[in-house]
Specification:
This protein has 325 residues and is of the alpha+beta class. 57% of the residues lie in helices and 14% in strands. It has 10 helices and 9 strands. The strands form 2 sheets. Strands 4-3-2-1-5 form a 5-stranded antiparallel sheet. Strands 6, 7, 8 and 9 form a 4-stranded antiparallel sheet that branches. A hairpin with a 5-residue loop joins strand 3 and strand 4. The longest helix is centred in the N-terminal third of the chain and has 34 residues. It is elongated.
């Protein structure tokens, strides 16, 4: 039984079956046109005079136009998912939006094609309707200019490769968070403070976007401040910190493609300033990033304790309230 079922599914997926199915659908449409002819002839016999050729001609054009649009819609969806999504599964969300956009274009073309058929067959009546529709379209376009601009920007965001729903992004104005939804008119973003922010697409269309979800490397750059009394120990301590970080962080990049250094950078009035520059094969977001950052801090702390060094801490004078009066 299972062999028969598998064979049946295999045949349904074959080109021969699809060809036969389309012929069957065309034949059924032809049958509907024939039934319309029969009804028209029956109405003529009963005294309801109709133009039999005219009715069947218009009916056939409408049916075949709508059928062709539907078949093209399914064929387009098959192409997108068969030859795009299967090759790049991560693009499924974007392909879904593109599929809906193309559906809207197909519906619009079908609508205008049907309207054109009816206007040709029915003459001035449909022409007046479309003339009124043109005036209404003009009024609507002038009144909804901002809405149209937002919709175009939303469409551009959806189709472009700048970001997708679920990505963590940072915009040029400093706004950052996780993209929850990209709509036609607005985009919803959940910030790191767990606030849901709604941003009009007109504000995002021209902004720079840093998509942190697609970055595969990160950087940790802590600054250390030493006391003047520990100046002789600083070079050795920095070398020990580098070695300790190497042992503690296996994702550390040490092949020379990214810098890995511990440098004494400046002598301030009250302390010595150094920094540690590390790069890792990790994205700059998520639990792995923060766990790795903690490993770096722990490695630095172990070296400082080993060398009995306390980092410089600025001491600010206490202000007495009486002196401020």
């Amino acid at each position: 039984i299972s062999t028969k079922i598998n064979g049946s599914h295999g045949f349904r997926n074959s080109y021969a079956y699809q060809f036969a199915e389309h012929l069957s659908q065309v034949a059924r449409i032809g049958l509907l046109v024939y039934l319309a002819d029969c009804l028209s002839a029956t109405a003529d016999i009963l005294g309801f005079h109709t133009d039999e050729y005219y009715m069947s001609h218009v009916f056939a054009k409408l049916l075949y136009t709508i059928w062709a649009a539907r078949r093209f819609k399914y064929f387009k969806k098959h192409i997108l998912y068969e030859y795009v999504v299967k090759i790049k599964p991560e693009s499924e969300k974007k392909i879904l939006h593109i599929n809906h956009l193309l559906d809207g274009i197909i519906y619009a073309i079908t609508f205008f094609k049907v309207g054109d058929l009816l206007s040709v067959e029915m003459g001035l009546a449909m022409t007046s309707v479309f003339a009124f529709g043109s005036v209404g379209t003009l009024v609507f376009s002038l009144a909804g200019k901002d809405i149209a601009t937002q919709a175009v920007n939303g469409l551009a965001l959806t189709i472009s490769d700048r970001m997708s729903e679920g990505d963590v992004v940072k915009f040029g104005d400093g706004t950052s968070g996780k993209v929850m939804k990209i709509g036609w008119l607005e985009t919803k973003l959940r910030t790191f403070d767990d606030l849901l922010v709604t941003i009009p697409n007109t504000q995002l269309g021209t902004q720079r976007v840093c998509n942190m979800s697609r970055i595969v490397m990160c950087r940790v750059r802590p600054t250390l401040r030493f006391r003047f009394s520990d100046a002789d120990k600083v070079p050795r301590v920095l070398e020990d910190i580098q070695e300790e970080i190497k042992k503690s962080c296996p994702e550390l990049i040490t092949d020379g493609s990214r810098p890995f250094r511990a440098i004494w950078t400046d002598i301030k009035d009250d302390h010595l300033e150094t920094f540690i520059d590390c790069h890792f094969h990790l994205p700059p977001i998520g639990k792995k990033y923060w766990n790795n950052r903690q490993k770096v801090m722990e490695a630095i702390d172990r070296v400082l304790k080993k060398n009995e060094i306390e980092l410089f801490t600025a001491v600010y004078p206490k202000l007495e309230l009486g002196k401020l009066r």
